Amino acid sequence: MEDNIFKTPYQTYHRKPYAAIDPTQPALSTKSKSAVVTGAGSGIGASIAVSLAKSGISYIALIGRREHALQKTKSAIEAASTDTNVYIYAVDITDLTAIDEALQAFAGECASGPFDILVANAGSLGPLSSIRDTNPVEWWNGFEINIKGNFNLVHAFLPRASPAAAIVHLSSAVVHGPYFPNESSYCASKAGAVKLFEYVHHEHPDMFVLCLQPGLVAETGMSPGFEMIANGSQMDMASLPWDDAALPGDFVVWAVSPEARFLNGRFVWANWDVDELKGDKEAILADPHKLKLGLIGGPS
């Protein structure tokens, strides 16, 4: 099969980390800053947390439902950086009181002041079945996590955030891609989440808000969906063009740096080349609809 199963607007398509997004570069340093990462116990969230540590983040809150998984990420961070203060909070983002208390506790630990970075990575695939055959309660659970959970998270983060804080929401290609069989809960709730973060952007224009498609990363909560895609395409899982989990991790470090500020309010893919994105900066800033969700051919 082709190495890339999606058509993209940029020539270079990365599957592994590369020099321009190396988190150890001085230009991408997050030293003296703080970050909150949800879904940090494994996969993409854990990778993002480790990349932030490599970039020098001073304070990081790891949020997830499984404490033992968060402890593993904490150990990986401590192996990558001796300068990062790591705090774990085993809470469910669908519980507003719990997430608010967790961020209040983290705020008390951050000598750097208000929060600088939020990585909203936690999500739910939901049931993999048709609308007719699905369990309605299980189907709605995707919205509980992908929309309500992210609302709770942002609602708790904003009062404690720096006026120029950076927020990155880990989204998915499904929100603008073709029909994905049996993934109505996931697709609909992830599309709604993009609109939620669009509102965060407009309500807080001095903050940086970005929606990011992290790539095709194995061993995440989305793996059952990837398996269904593979089966539907008559492929096996091994034949899918997998991306290195470190790619979205390093990309997020670049995204929260001053270099990426021109992408505020946009939707991008971690696979796209950042130098090509920077080369497209004037065109992106000149077009209020470029790299955003919208109606093709519709009114502006």
TrEMBL record:
SMART domains, sorted: PKS_KR
Statement: the UniProt record of this protein carries the keyword Oxidoreductase: yes
Pfam families, sorted: adh_short
One example GO MF annotation: oxidoreductase activity
Keyword entries, A-Z: Oxidoreductase
Matching CDD domains: SDR_c (cd05233)
Residue ranges annotated for the Ketoreductase domain, each copy included: 33-251
Keyword Oxidoreductase appears in the UniProt entry: yes
Entry similarity comment: Belongs to the short-chain dehydrogenases/reductases (SDR) family.
Protein name: Ketoreductase domain-containing protein
